[in-house]
Amino acid sequence: MSQAAHSATTLGAVRADAVRNLEAVLTTGARMLAADPGASIASIATEAGVDRRTVYRRFASREELLTAIYESRVTAIERAIEDARLREAPVAVALHRYVENIIAVNRTWPVDLARMLSDDAIRRRRDACVTEVDDFLRRATDEGLLRPGLPAGWASALLPQLMHLVSRQLPELSPAQAADVVVDTLLNGLRAS
Amino acid sequence: MSQAAHSATTLGAVRADAVRNLEAVLTTGARMLAADPGASIASIATEAGVDRRTVYRRFASREELLTAIYESRVTAIERAIEDARLREAPVAVALHRYVENIIAVNRTWPVDLARMLSDDAIRRRRDACVTEVDDFLRRATDEGLLRPGLPAGWASALLPQLMHLVSRQLPELSPAQAADVVVDTLLNGLRAS
DNA sequence: CATAAATGCCACAGCAATGTGACAGAATAG
DNA sequence: CTATTCTGTCACATTGCTGTGGCATTTATG
User: Fold this and answer.
1) Between A151, A169, A192, which is nearest B181 by CB?
2) What is chain B's percent helix, strand, coil content, to nearest 5?
3) How far is A140 from chain B (nearest CA, A)?
4) Residue-wise pLDDT tens digits, A46-92
5) Residue of B nearest to A190 (CA)
6) By three-state DSSP, how is residue B13 classified?
7) From CA A102, how far away is CA A76, in angstroms rounded?
8) What's the pLDDT tens digit per position in B37-69?
9) Which CATH number is correct for B62-193, 1.10.357.10, 3.30.70.980, 3.30.70.2860, 1.10.287.130?
């Protein structure tokens, strides 16, 4: 209880290198877990250039580390949606901007959120994002960009897959160029002429 | 060495129920490993309605079981390619037939062959299939079905993803109907009019 | 029915990964 | 420089899965 009497100067600050290590563990973990969902904490720590014990000092359990990684992704997705202004911007503009943003997110946080249905908070935030995009795709159909009469949920399922595919299949493209490919493929397909 | 003297009638035949159990383990294993690549043999056995020990009687190790499952998939893919006559048939016909066949394969053997690069034999057979499809897509471009000038490998990567997506996203569609969706999306995209 | 094949169940050893404790040493902030 | 924070390392208990042996029981087949 003596800690409460300590001033802010006495209480130690968070060290900068600790923050760097934390970020390294999170991004490296995201990359490795995307490649192999069963990756061990030891392998992630080694790849991030950190001891296994250091990871356990920041995260009480494997679940907590995973939660932190998936939360990083969902937070980035929320920002991507906000920035694209899916509700207000012209559909063609919003679509391209959204795709470009998500491609950047996919490259930093390539993990699949479908593997994190256990944590309620994250699942809810993810569901909200999905709903947001579904609404946008409905608007895109209403305003004549997308064809009506497609199988239920087809566009909603196709778009994330295209973004995921281009993110790892065409890594040399910039997010903007990659978005060009995704939007062009989504709208026009690959037919000649 | 007395076994060599035994006649075929003395040597026991393979029992029919054993074959059924084997197939159940393989298909159930494929389904569960697709959902979770770290699924334990115990869980697969339970789901298939057999004892864990029964699995170990047929497969010396986990690796062997996985190899058998992935081999089932690659064999089915080879048959699908042959049946589609990718080299000879008109490109539009061959494409639809190939897609329809692979969708059926995906529903029985949904595992991802990219997770089986360890076994040389399977990897080689997989590579041969990939090459076969790549050649076909080149022919489709040469004959004016697909647009030239796309990013390298884009069509090759997109097609399997579309088939994979429709296989699990639209399970109520027949393989033929699902193939309609894939081919239409691939060639025309989702743009209105 | 009688034989051979196949399965289910119990038990056990080995291994890899998780999670925790303690302590000495390195790095940083004031 | 000094106090504090952070890290690396050795050690240890625990858990879940793999892989194996033995034996009684069930089931298919001729």
Assistant:
1) A151
2) 70, 0, 30
3) 10
4) 999 999 999 999 999 999 999 999 999 999 999 999 999 999 999 99
5) B187
6) coil
7) 8
8) 999 999 999 999 999 999 999 999 999 999 999
9) 1.10.357.10
Judge whether residue B14 contacts strand D, using its CB and a 7 Å cut-off. Answer: no
What tokens appear for B12 in the block?
């026991």
- Closest-CA distance of chain B to residue A144, Å: 6
Q: Which residues of B touch A180 (CB under 8 A)?
A: none
Q: How crowded is residue B81: how many other Cβ atoms within 10 Å of its Cβ? A: 21
Q: Could you tell me which residues are beta bridge partners of residue B191? A: A146
What is the signed CA dihedral for B167, B168, B173, B178, rounded to 10 degrees?
-30
Closest chain B residue to A168 measured between Cα atoms? B157
Higher-confidence residue: A166 or B7? A166
Q: Cβ contacts of residue A70 below 8 Å, gap of 6+? A: A111, A113, A115, A116, A119, A122
Residue A11's pLDDT band (cuts 50, 70, 90): low
Architecture of domain A67-193: Orthogonal Bundle (1.10)
User: Å between B44 CA and D14 C1'?
Assistant: 25
Chain A stretch 88-147, residues whose beta carbon is closer than 8 A to a beta carbon of chain B: 141, 144-147
Whether the model pTM is above 0.90: yes
What would the pLDDT profile of B69-115 be if each residue is shown by its tens digit? 999 999 999 999 999 999 999 999 999 999 999 999 999 999 999 99
- Averaged pLDDT, A151-164: 98
Q: Do A188 and B188 touch (CB under 8 A)?
A: yes
pLDDT at B131: 98
Tokens (6 digits) for B75: 């064999």
Domain spans of chain A? Answer: 13-58, 67-193
Question: For B104-152, how does the pLDDT look when each residue is reduced to its tens digit (9 = 90+)?
Answer: 999 999 999 999 999 999 999 999 999 999 999 999 999 999 999 999 9
Chain B touched by A188 (CB under 8 Å): yes
Could you tell me if B87 and B170 are in contact, meaning their C-beta atoms sit under 8 angstroms apart?
no
Q: A181 and B154 in contact by Cβ < 8 A?
A: yes
Dihedral (CA of A33, A35, A36, A41) sign = negative
Q: How far is B171 from chain A (nearest CA, A)?
A: 11
Contact B192 A144 (CB under 8 A): yes
pLDDT band (50, 70, 90) for residue B6: very low
